[in-house]
Design brief:
The protein has 1523 residues and is of the alpha/beta class. Helix content is 52%, strand content 6%. It is elongated.
Length: 1523
Amino acid sequence: MSSSSQKQTASNSWLSNILRTISPSVTVESCLNLSTRPDPTMPLDARPIVPLIDQSQPLPTRCKHLAVFSELCKSYKFTHLENIFFTVEDILNPSMPSEARHTVFEFMLACVKWQYSELGMARVTFYSCLKNYSHWDDFGDIYQVIFALCKGGRDISGFEKNISKLLIYWLDMAIQKAPPNHDRIPYLSDILELLKVTAKFNFAFFEEGEVTEMIQAAHKAFFSSLSHHHLDDIKACLEFADIVVRYRFVPFDALKPFLEILSTSVILLSQQPKTGISCWPIFLNLLRSHCAHSAILTLCKSIDKPSINTTQNTDTSTQGSIILLSETAWGTKYRTYKKGAESYMVSDSVLLLYFKKAASKGDSITNTALLNALILLIETPENNISLMDWESIWDIVDECTQHVMEAIELQSLDISLFDIKQDSHPLYPFSHFIQTIIGLHREKKYKGPLSRWMNVLYKLRSYTSDETAHLLLTYYMKEHLFLPSTESWIELLQDMANTYYIDNNHHITESTRLTLLDMVMNICTSVKDFYSEIIYVNVVIPMMEKLASETDKNIRHKAIDLIVSSLSDCQNEAIFDTLLTILYTCSRCLCDHGNDLYHKSAQKKQHTLHRKNSSAALIQAKHQFIMDSGGRDGCSGFTAMMGMAELFENLLISSHGTLCVKVFNKILDIANDGSDLYCPFGGPKLVALDLFLRLRCPTNHHIYMVDDNIPEEDSIIAKLRLEREKRKEAEDKKRTKGMYIAGPQSYSPDLSYPSPTIVSYKDSEEEGVESVLDINEMLKSYVRVLSNSPNWVVVIFVLKRLPQQLSNKHLFCGASPYINKLRRRLVKSIKNRNFLENVVNVPQTIKRNDLTIHAYTLLTVLISYRRIFTDPKQDQDEMVYAFYMGIAQVTNATRLCINSLAVCCYEMPLSVTKMLNEILGIMSKIISVSSVSVRILEFLSGLARLPNLYANFTGDMYKPVFAIALNYLQYFHSQQQQLQQQTTSATSSPAIGPPTTSSSTANSHKDVAQGALKQYVLIMAYMVITVWFTAIPLRERRKHVPFIIQRLLSGISMGKPIDEQTFTCIDMLSRFTFADVCLTPEKKSIVSEILMGDHQGTPNRSQQQRTWVYGHTLLTLRTAQSLGWIEVTIRRPSGTMSMMCYIENKLKSDEIDYKTLPALLMMQYQPDLMAAKILKGREEGGIEEDPEEEPEQIQKTVTDILSEPVSDSLPLNTHLRKAEPYIDPGFLYLQLTNYPDTSRVLDITPPLPDDEATARSIATFDRIPVVEFHKIGVLYVGQGQTNELEILANTYGSPDYVRFLNVLGTIQRLRGRMSNLGGLDREMDIDGRYAYFWQDDVTEVVFHVATMMPTRLEHDPQCSAKKRHIGNDYVSIVYNDSSSPYAFNTLPSQFNFINIVISPHSISTESISPAHALMGAENTFFKVEMQTRPDMPDIGLLNEPKLVSAQSLSAFVRQAAIHANTFAQVFWQSSAGGKREYVTHWRERLRQIQRIKERVVGKENPMVSKTGKEGPNDTSLDFTKYT
């Protein structure tokens, strides 16, 4: 079949279908004959289904068939579709059901999608219908059909002229129909999407006006979407804008709305950073177009004029415009989008000009954007900002500043403007801008005008941060705007002070206030010469008025420093008084708020309790108050009081004595004020006392200060001092760095130099002296503290330092009333045993009984004030009695009391004499206490050498002295016996027998020291017995022997031999009981030499000598050349005795004796005098001695002696005979017997062999001294001398030093002296011609005086000859005139154990006025102190320095040196000398006799009798029973 026939058949079929009666079973498929379709590729005629969808059919049927046909359209091609549309077009009526209308739209959509190529005119028909369709409820279906009809905007053929209007209309409708509370505008993004695509592919069809309308519609849609906050709609608008600039251009008429979209988007999108949407590519593409200049100009105008949109988005658009402009001109953040945009350069000056206009509108949002833009400008390193541009920038900032200030005041904001960290804060941009400028300034990159910036900071000074305030203040300082060179400098400084210090603004931090205080202090220093009063009145005083209520510690410190600095330089007394009053007010203690409560509580308890119990409750209440208050940081008055103390120090060396006295009186008020007694920290009183206790004065009473040399670790005052030093160091560093204005160089005043105008005492009109400090009131404050203060911290602070200050006697010349009151208080509290009873917080480690040591320390110093006592005799008696009470009960003060009593022996002898029996009685009871035994024995040893104190002793009054020493010996022996029972390794003192070496070895320095101390105490006990026994009158000695011997032996166990020391002591008793003879003949007398023939040089053959040993005696008999004469020499441990004996029996001899008669005559006269005459003749002759002439010389001497004097000018008694001394025959008896070896019969032994060994043994024995020998070095230290050579090279000393030496010993010629010289040369005067010696019955001392030894620096530049002697002395006496402390190792030596240092201290305050003090007045009091090696224990009277008067100095020092040297020898033997026992000379002599005897009789113990009986008891040894 041909195609024409087929078409004809189809046409006939369609017609037949119309005419055919419609049956209900007819379907769309059957109408279209789809089952019989001959050619599937041929389009079908759609008209056959018209009857099925005709209006005559029911609507559901029509919709049903139309839906089926719509589905078929997906599979078949149809023609005449417009006929189908016209048939169902009535269904689109809004009155029809929405489902029915939707079916028609689905039909249209199916036709467009599947029949697009066959639509023909149906396409235009569809568009025309839909264009005019106004029912908005079906817009979704309409949009889908139109979208498909134009292929999503890509094909608008047929309706190019009005598609834009349709879309614009739809945009308007969408905006109008938007639900009010919906979060988005329905269909808006779809319409915009279609508009975008349509514009993108069809811009060529649109006129410029149409594009403008489209942009305006997009502008409207954008801001409508903005109000609904729907990002998809906004994105669609921006995408449309992007299409415009990419595929067309922005018409000039549309620039403003277009840019408003972009500027608003900048702000909007910056708030939604995660959207991924950006408007910057659109804007940068715009700048690539020919509209770039117009766009920039439009943006500039937009920030100066209102927007076309008068809604709330106006400010946002303006803000965005500023951002677009700033980023275009200065931005770097979006540099990746700006490729090519750099070709258009925006002028900074023009831009800043428009910004300045915008800033004047006063809009906070605009100002924020402007500030952000300026931040971008100045933060970008590539932006080179000119000075003119900087001025524009600061013009803008000035406008913003004004608005910021208005906003703060309007809203009453209380903020720190430049410390804002939240970027959401409305003032953050301004704060950020200033911080950016600060950062540039900090990095030295800020190139703008500094003054403009500082003007801004000045305007906002009340809201500045620490850093900005510091910058502002520093700028004013560096520009000298605070100095008089600036016209309004004082007003500016006042303004700064009010803002940053005085005003109660909590934003003013500590740092800012401290900075201002630093600057004000620096300014005051710089202008003090001319403008000090102005700045003090206008700035300093207003700043300081409320200082008393200041709570910040650092501020108080700095403010106090400012006041102190101002007062130190103030010349106006009125201003001075004002500032001093402020400082005084700040010095008050505010810690005692609970005081009233405490008093009420105490009063209540007093009503209910017994008086004694009430006192205890009172003390407990005080203690509880202090403990409860101890948790605070510190007393509020400390800082100001430290400042007042510093002020006093500054004024002390200045010429303003009156001002210094004012400050001193204020400090006195605080020190004497009782309101801070209960301050747990000590209160400002503690600082005042610290100042007072450092005051000193020389002999002319001019005040100076010393450093506190008492260590105070972890104490309150130590912390205050440390804090003060740290602050001063910090201030010095600031000045060194040149942080502030250069002023006068700071210096540290030398407080150790006496003030020229301020004195402690003035008894006459001394020229130049203006002011006198009231030292009596100062001492009054000490007495009040000691009497009333309950605070241990304050009390112990005074007690530790007051003795040192009291030793400076000249300071207290005008304080006699309170010196006496202090003495009375101390004595009374000691007697009543209530010293420091008010103190409640005594540390638990301290016993209350031990507190009296501090009272005794003060009393010891007050000994030197004895001459100003009110009633000298009674007051001295009371002081001695107080010391007596101190030894009545053993405490840690007992040793001090014993030492003080020793000083009183020299300084208050009458009072000590009055109490001596009681003192000795107490000492006998406590001698066994190890801590005080050595003190007691040293005291007794020194007392024995002061015979005036016991001159009235009779009989048994000496017995307590022996009892003390004997009690200790008994105690010692008992301890030794207990020790022997506990361990077999320990041994007691060796017994008589072979000498033994101690087997004990010290394990440490402490053990060595303790061992040496025990030996020393034992030696001192025997020494006390010896010196006191020889001190007893000869007639009284016999009665004490039984008591001494009995007590000596009572400590020795039965069966035990007598120890060596006891034996030598008994031997001493036998020697001195019946005669006062020297322990050894110093040299042979002339009589002896004549009779014995020793002067002839060679012995006669008729002379014979034999030596026998019996008991512990060496008896030597030697016949003389003169017939019948025999020399008897008896050598015993305690001494050697020599006698000349004559046999009265007639001897058978033919020789004529020519010598006996002259010798007998000369024996009645002093042989020493004759010897002296002979020696004098030899020295004056200066020739060699001729043995042949010697008899003639002797004869001449004898003749001179026996003849009467020729001249009447010579005294008649020049050569008178001595009074006959008393010698009891018992003396000779005991010397010739074997006593005390009485248990034996007399040893019958042959004489010692007459050989060299015997001669050597006897010679060795004779070389052992019979006295305790000491060699003491004496050094003089001149003014300013510190090293060894200077001191040793001295050849003379001061007059006081010479007077000291003259009393220290007796000066004697060295050449020819036979006694021990301590190594000094006795032949050639190598060590000088003279030396000082001192001796008593059992002790001999030689003083190696450096100034008396030859000084030959040309031959001995190191003074080695002097050091050879003094360097080997264990003890040196150092007379220190250097005015500085003497260092222990100044003269280093292996044997330098102890130095006794004497320092001139004060003159007589009663007889010499201050005006004459510097004219060389004599020092009458000396400070004596002992320096020991670190490993030595505490011995002697000088464990603490003592003040000793000139009249007692030599005797006191000599006795201390003897004790020190004794101990040093013991210590050396116990440590460096081989760790062996120290053996006295008597013990060594005893041992030597034993050695000699052992060679004869063997090693049998001589103390055990041949019958086996044990050693002798006290009955056999009591020689008084048989003599």
